[in-house]
């Protein structure tokens, strides 16, 4: 491996390996599998020169997406399905919550980028299920202000998610 490639790979590892590893452990609960996924993710990034030329935030977003796909591919693989051995068949089938977990993490990170005022009305409206009038009364602000904050907050949230590569 040429010296320049070794330097770039080392810088890529230093900047992104730990967050990607924590993310994969969060998804899978398996530290050993996380090591393998991080290694494969770094290898794919190194093999994709355009990724190394992007800004660090875009590179990290790309790496999180690749890691997520590797986790999903592993979970869906026939190899993985044959390895699961249980004494008794479970009564209730459990669904794979990987997608929901990933989406929750992305939304949480995007909400954190908003101003406190915008975040407050969005959380109360969408997660709290409150109407405009209820939010206005609770925050002691006019309903028009709630509507405005909700509009501009959702707009900022959409932009934050676009920056993470979630929406167009």
From TrEMBL:
Pfam family of the protein (one): Sigma70_r4
Record keyword Transcription present: yes
Presence of the UniProt keyword Amino-acid biosynthesis in the record: no
InterPro entries: RNA_pol_sigma-70-like (IPR039425), RNA_pol_sigma-70_dom (IPR014284), RNA_pol_sigma70_r2 (IPR007627), RNA_pol_sigma70_r4 (IPR007630), RNA_pol_sigma_r2 (IPR013325), RNA_pol_sigma_r3/r4-like (IPR013324), WH-like_DNA-bd_sf (IPR036388)
Domain RNA polymerase sigma-70 region stretches: 12-80, 110-158
Keywords assigned by UniProt, alphabetized: DNA-binding, Sigma factor, Transcription, Transcription regulation
SUPFAM superfamilies on file: Sigma2 domain of RNA polymerase sigma factors, Sigma3 and sigma4 domains of RNA polymerase sigma factors
Family: Belongs to the sigma-70 factor family. ECF subfamily.
Protein name as it appears in the record: Sigma-70 family RNA polymerase sigma factor
Organism listed in the record: Microbacterium deminutum
